[in-house]
Automatic annotation (TrEMBL):
Pfam families: Asp_Glu_race. GO terms for molecular function: glutamate racemase activity. Gene3D superfamilies: 3.40.50.1860. Keywords: Isomerase. The keyword Transmembrane does not apply. It comes from Streptomyces gougerotii. This is Glutamate racemase. SUPFAM superfamilies: Aspartate/glutamate racemase. GO terms for biological process: peptidoglycan biosynthetic process.
């Protein structure tokens, strides 16, 4: 079994680590595009073109499923990716976990990039899945870039600014960018330190990993032999896992596996 994941940058580590936990025997292909990130400020057509290019690079390694581990690419590129690769290669998108967050009741905040915050796409998800639960949209300028380039001071500043914009009454936070899942503990600490909490964080990675296995007709098997390989593609080039990835628990989980072994 081989599962490919596509993102603009290292945000895909969250879903990749979730797959690794469920199936240690799965081969993984991580295809990101650091040469052209961030994708968020680009036009929808440009995002789609870059996502398709990253997916083409991954598809050359003949995966059994393709995970679009990026919220921006899932918004703008899923139709093009599915037209290009399905039905031969199942394509799984990423959707912010608004529905499970709202199901618990309380007050929900959605942390997302400035481009996604207030967008028609996010407002539609809120209308469809929040079920009347109060939702506050919180923009997080600079956070994804700071995570991508492993800039701890900038990460802390961006998180603190977003925490200050999050109402104290919030009981659940939806992480609406895959990069944010890499610093979930820091987000929780900042929010609880500012007087918000106790709260629950909702990322997309576990659900995306489970859906990829379902599309392949496979059950989770965390006790499977840890034989899965790791292939890393950076803007189409075969490279080692980026050094910044090792700053995060998800990257360290994947790091011991050398590509092709």
């Amino acid at each position: 079994m081989k599962i490919a994941l596509v993102d603009s940058g290292i945000g895909l580590l969250a879903a990749a680590a979730a797959v690794r936990r469920l199936r240690p025997d799965a081969d993984l292909v991580l295809s990101s595009d650091p040469d052209s990130m961030p994708w968020g400020p680009r036009t929808p057509e440009d995002v789609s073109a870059h996502a398709v290019a990253a997916a083409e690079a991954a598809a050359a390694h003949r995966p059994d499923a393709l995970v679009v581990a990026c919220n921006t690419a899932s918004v703008h590129a899923l139709p093009a990716l599915r037209e290009r690769f399905e039905p031969g290669l199942p394509v799984i998108g990423t959707v912010p976990a608004i529905k499970p967050a709202a199901a618990a009741g309380g007050h929900v905040a959605i942390w997302a990039t400035p481009a996604t915050t207030g967008s028609a796409y996010q407002r539609r998800l809120i209308a469809d899945f929040a079920g009347g639960t109060p939702v506050t949209e919180v923009p997080c300028p600079g956070l994804a870039d700071a995570v991508q380039w492993d800039q701890p001071a900038a990460v802390a500043d961006a998180i603190a600014a977003a925490a200050a914009r999050t109402p104290d009454t919030v009981t659940a936070v939806v992480l609406g960018c895959t990069h944010y899942e890499l610093v979930g503990d820091a987000i929780r600490t900042a929010l609880e330190s500012s007087g918000t909490g106790p709260l629950t964080l909702h990322g997309s990675a576990p659900a995306v990993a489970a859906q990829a296995l379902r599309r392949l007709g496979l059950a989770p098997d965390p006790a499977a032999p840890a034989t899965g390989t790791l292939t890393v593609l950076l803007s189409g080039r075969a490279e080692p896992l980026p050094a910044a990835a090792l700053s995060y628990a998800q990257g360290r989980l994947l790091a011991p596996v050398a590509a092709g072994h």
